[in-house]
Amino acid sequence: MYHRTRWIPARMWPGVLLLCLLCGSCDDHPSATGVTESDSAGVRILTSHGAGWASESSWQLELDLNVGSLDGPNSFARLRDVAPRRAGGFWVLDSQERRVRAFDESGTEMLAFGRPGQGPGELGFVDHVAELPDGSIVVGGSGPISLHRFDADGGHVSSTTLPDSVFRPRREATTAAGPPAGPSFGRWRVAKDGAVFVQTVVVEADEERVVRNDVLFRLAEDGGRAVRLSVWGAAVMDGGPGGELRLLEPDAAWSPLEGGGAWFTAGSVYELRRLDPAGQATTVVRRPGPRLEVTGSIKRAVREKLGRRMDSDFERALLDRAVFPEHLPATLGLWAAESAGELWVGVVDPSSTWNYERANAWDIFEVGGAFLGRMAMPASFRPTRVTGEHVYGIWLDELDVPHARRYRILRERE
Q1: CA angle 345, 346, 349 (to 5 degrees)
Q2: Could you tell me if 369 and 46 are in contact, meaning their C-beta atoms sit under 8 angstroms apart?
């Protein structure tokens, strides 16, 4: 077939180059890494089109530390968090025993502290443990939202219950449903430099309605002030007796960064936002692709799974009329491995077994937007941290006995 070529006279080149710069068309094509870059009101937009690694070069996970047993000294009641330990090994948080335990590289317990209660050194419901740069340990909890600090030997330093003023609603009028309740839920994360973040629920009210928002805060060191980084998931409540159970709805995920910012995804679309310390988006990473449909078989499986946990007629009635979205969430988790310059995004991979609750695979990106590939997680394993070298998390064996685990990331086949 003959293609006619039309040449542009040299005298027109400056105008053509200027047009490219003005309209951005010169940057609309994917780079060698499969990333298209554009700008929107000063926000850097990175759209990833790459296919990722080939199967023969895909990354692997190699188990290198495991602690857990049915009974005995290495047994756990209810594992809630597993976190890196600077001296090697990991920290383990048992939310039922209200206890923090440290294990070294050989899996030997080196330290344990904490007990149930509300007094000094005592813990309520807790879901996060982290070691700070100075060697101290923080434990985050809910009901009320509290942050507990311990020294390197497990001695209690302080416990701060965050005051309602930190999360004070913008409008505080009482509605027919009564005054809005204060926040009691907190999802904690601590950045490598010690900056503390918490996700909680803020209820804002006026004379006619109560609006429930999920909000991500970064806290000041004294715990008395907070910066709102993101607000999402607004739900309007009228306080009536009716209720609605919504299943498989998107849930936001976020990962704190040194310096006070965070990576954030709302879960409804495949979009990752880097937030600066003031909560403003500076970079957006997108990966276009088809959404997975919530099929009838998925609905039946979810109802069956949840039905085994429900005892009352009220709960079963809610489950019978549960509402499902048209599509599964686009994302189900997010970890920023800063030292490796990577983003790990939890997703549902239809080619692998999925338990209908959390991600069964993780998409891995460079922070510059390049898609590296997708990694399936070991069966029955839930990641709780991703660092440059390791993935930490909780694994359930065939008897549902919890184990604390650490996997080494093999970025090259050995």
Answers
A1: 120
A2: yes
**Of 314 and 98, which is predicted with more confidence?**
98
Q: How far is CA 313 from CA 307, 317, 320, 365, in A?
A: 11, 6, 10, 46
pLDDT band per the 50, 70, 90 thresholds, residue 213:
confident
Classify 27 as helix, strand or coil. helix
Evaluate whether 253 touches 265 at the Cβ level (below 8 Å). Answer: yes
Is-cis flag, bond preceding 383, omega within 30? no
How far apart CA 399 and CA 297 sit, in angstroms, is 26
Q: Taking a C-beta distance cutoff of 8 angstroms, is the pair 53, 59 a contact?
A: yes
Q: Dihedral sign for Cα 353, 354, 360, 361, please.
A: positive
How many whole angstroms separate alpha carbon 66 and alpha carbon 103?
A: 10
Q: Which residues contact 193 (CB under 8 A, 6 or more apart)?
A: 133, 258, 259
Q: Average the pLDDT over 288-293 and give the result.
A: 92
Euclidean distance between CA atoms 359 and 376, whole angstroms: 9
Q: Which residues of 310-335 are buried (b: 16+ CB within 10 A; e: fewer)?
A: eeeeeeeeebeeeebeeebbbbbbbb
Question: Which tokens go with 12?
Answer: 């027109």
Alpha carbons 395 and 280: distance in angstroms, whole number: 36
Band of pLDDT at residue 82, cut at 50, 70 and 90: very high
Provide DSSP, 337-387. Answer: EGGGTEEEEEE--TTS---SSS-SEEEEEETTS-EEEEEEPPTTEEEEEE-
